[in-house]
Design brief:
Layout (H helix, E strand, L loop, with lengths): L6 H16 L3 E6 L2 H5 L2 H13 L4 E4 L2 H8 L3 H5 L8 E8 L11 E4 L3 E3 L7 H9 L10 E3 L2 E3 L6 H4 L17 H6 L4 H9 L2 H11 L11 H9 L7 E6 L8 H8 L1 H15 L3 E7 L3 H16 L15 E7 L8 H8 L23 E5 H13 L1 H5 L9 E8 L5 E6 L4 H8 L9 E6 L5 E3 L10 H7 L7 E6 L4 H15 L5 H18 L7 H15 L3 H5 L2 H9 L1 H10 L13 E3 L9 H5 L5 E2 L7 E2 L9 H5 L5 E3 L1
Parallel strand pairs: 1-3, 2-3, 8-9, 8-11, 9-10, 12-16
Antiparallel strand pairs: 1-4, 4-5, 6-7, 12-13, 14-15, 14-16, 17-20, 18-19
Helix pairs in contact: 9-13, 9-16, 10-11, 10-13, 12-13, 12-14, 13-16, 20-21, 20-24, 21-22, 22-24, 24-25
């Protein structure tokens, strides 16, 4: 790659990249985020490449990585080729996540603006013959709702309800190609920061934008930057928290996989603002694709003079490193994260001193998460006033959320802060699967709380959610219908936080253990009425005295479910029943005499001989002997056994 030595070089590369993309008669962008890869998009990409190689009448360009592996150089994959005059110019690229995981694998076709959904390897020949060579639409691969057909991504209701700013490029450019990021305007904000602004100007711009940390705490990013910039110690660090350990959360993962340069550009701007020369990205080892693309992005940026020494010929230097975490949830906490990077056991420490004064290697450290850094380039480009015009005054900008659970449209979304919860679930999310009844949504992962029907008009912003006892957290949304047991939900999250406790402080180590023991008794039908008071007392103790933020928020799922679903807890305790029929120890298996044919299969397979009867007559279950294993139901061919 040619090294960029000035702002002029960057502008020329941008124009050249835009021209290269425009000259392509057809661009196939195969979604290669983790979700689509798991659904088979790698096979789709490989098949399309195989088909392209068999057509000498076209000039084809593959992803940057494939070109590098095939040719030993990056120019063909990254920059593209002009192609012979008598050949049709085609490119096949690996994009990041589009967000609509429910309908993947996805293939975007440009400049036609087509979006093909649920694409399989068998569909590739049809796409190639009809669309690439024949400029026709493969209608059966388009997104359909009933009789309505949607040709392009922007036409699909799932996307129409969103405001994609952070994720604007994700799915639209090659995730492995720095040239395509530059062609889309990438690194222009860095150039503006380096050439048109002083470090203090950048810090003030971020402060005035009121960008709040997207990792969960919602702390003002500009305040952190100001505090680091004002330290007497001149050796400083910029660290990115890419740990994202919440169950059901994959927002940061999508950014690191699909638009890694955008996050890196944000870190570069932060580094120049506080005059730091070393940075670290802490990413979960469970994100191998993100790690792979981050490494590729760093290598490309260093080769082109956008990372390393003398960036853009300005004399400013910044070196970036990747640290892979071992999967400890507690390492999402700032001081535990920096300890882990240093090679120590990831455990939070007493504060103060805080990270801004004594962070990584006991030096002043700017520590923000992936999404926060990804917001920085567009704030520098468009200004603080523009950013504050989006969303509420105290929570400006957009927020990414991951939708999962019993919701029709699962995936990754981005909406302005202040969007109503109901608009997300029943608008963008399409409502509950199979027309079931909405019951609750767990927001913020194991550190968050449950919101119910009464909260559907709630504004999704930091301050509004705090009033309900819930938090945005990293942005994971797990939607639940009436078949969900809220007591089991509380037990599940408490089990998670108890296992992930680092054990350093007694309130978290012992408090979560005692809370889990009580919840376990309740779901087993051994609870007592006073257990709810015990849970609330323990919750107050843990949240008031735990050492770190993760410990303080651990009781939230329990407190919020007791507050909203106390009657469900009491049913488990007093009536020994689980209305959702989820808790194994509270299930009662019954044989319907009208459906039972007296075949005896259930009795023959019962491990405790709890079923009796005569052949060709209805059998019965003795629930004093039944161990609720469900084997009888599995072996019944007549659906005669049900759970009462």
């Amino acid at each position: 790659m040619n090294r960029i030595k000035s702002r002029t070089d960057l502008d020329v590369l941008k124009k050249d990249g835009q021209a290269q993309i425009k000259q392509k008669a057809c661009r196939l962008l195969v979604c290669s985020g983790t979700g689509c890869v798991a659904s088979g998009s790698e096979k789709v990409y490989n098949k399309l490449c195989e088909l392209a190689k068999n057509h000498p009448e076209i000039d084809v360009v593959f992803s940057a990585e494939e070109a590098h592996e095939a040719d030993g150089e990056c120019c063909k994959g990254c920059k593209g080729t002009s192609g012979a005059d008598d050949k049709k110019s085609v490119s096949i690229k690996k994009s990041g996540c589009h967000g609509f995981c429910e309908i993947g694998p996805l293939v975007r076709v440009e400049p036609q603006g087509l979006m093909y959904t649920k694409v399989t390897e068998d569909d590739c020949e049809s796409i190639f013959e009809k669309t690439v060579l024949g400029d026709e639409i493969v209608h059966e691969l388009l997104y359909h709702e009933g009789e309505k057909e949607y040709i392009g991504e922007d036409d699909i209701p799932f996307f129409q309800g969103q405001t994609r700013l952070v994720l604007k490029r994700c799915g639209h450019i090659d995730a492995e190609d720095i040239h395509e990021y530059i062609a889309s305007g990438g690194y222009q904000s860095l150039a503006k920061a380096l050439f048109d602004m002083k470090p203090d100007d950048i810090v003030n711009e971020i402060y005035e934008s009121n960008l709040r940390g997207r990792g969960g705490g919602g702390f003002r990013a500009g305040t952190k930057w100001k505090q680091v910039a004002s330290q007497q110690e001149k050796e400083r660090y910029v660290v990115c928290n890419g740990d994202e350990g919440d169950p059901g959360a994959f927002m940061d993962c999508a950014v690191m996989e699909g638009i890694p340069h955008q996050m890196i550009e944000g870190m570069l701007i932060a580094a120049y603002a506080v005059q730091a020369h070393e940075g670290y990205i802490y990413v979960r080892a469970e994100y191998p694709l993100a790690v792979k693309r981050l490494k590729l992005a760093i290598t490309q940026a260093e080769s082109m003079g956008l990372l390393g020494d003398n960036i853009l010929g300005t004399g400013f230097s910044f070196h970036l490193h990747i640290n892979r975490g071992a999967g400890a949830f507690v390492c999402g906490e700032g001081s535990a994260l920096t300890a882990s990077i240093e090679g120590k056991r990831g455990m939070p420490r007493v504060k103060p001193p805080r990270t801004v004064s004594q962070g990584l290697f006991a030096k002043p450290t700017v520590l923000n998460n992936v999404e926060t850094y990804a917001n920085v380039p567009m704030i520098i480009e468009n200004g603080a006033h523009w950013y504050r015009s989006i969303g509420p005054e105290n929570s400006p900008g957009t927020k990414t959320f991951s939708l999962s659970g019993t919701i029709r449209n699962t995936g990754l979304i981005e909406v302005p802060m202040g969007t109503k919860l109901g608009d997300v679930i029943f608008g963008i999310g399409g409502g509950i699967k199979n027309d079931q009844e909405f019951k609750a949504v767990q927001l913020g992962g194991p550190s968050g709380g449950c919101l119910t029907k009464e909260n559907l008009d709630l504004s999704l912003d930091f301050d509004s959610l705090k009033k309900t006892g819930a938090i945005i957290g990293s942005g994971g949304m797990v939607v639940m219908d009436q078949h969900t047991c809220m007591v089991e939900v509380a037990r599940f999250f408490m089990n998670f936080t108890q296992r992930e406790s680092c054990g350093k402080c007694v309130p978290c180590r012992e408090g979560t253990t005692r809370m889990l023991e009580i919840l376990q008794r309740i779901v087993e039908g051994k609870g007592e009425p006073e257990d709810l008071d015990k849970l609330l007392v323990l919750a107050d103790m843990v949240s008031s005295t735990a050492l770190c933020g993760l410990g303080k928020s651990a009781p939230l799922p329990v407190v919020s479910t007791i507050r909203a679903f106390r009657d469900e807890y009491m049913e488990h305790i007093v009536d020994k029943k689980c209305r959702a029929k989820v808790c194994d120890k509270l299930k009662t298996y019954v044989i319907d005499p009208q459906k039972c044919k007296g075949c005896s299969r259930c009795a023959k397979n019962c491990p405790v001989n709890a079923i009796s009867g005569e052949i060709k007559s209805p059998f019965t279950i003795d629930n004093t002997k039944c161990v609720r294993c469900g084997v009888c139901m599995d072996h019944c061919s007549f659906d005669a056994i049900y759970i009462d």
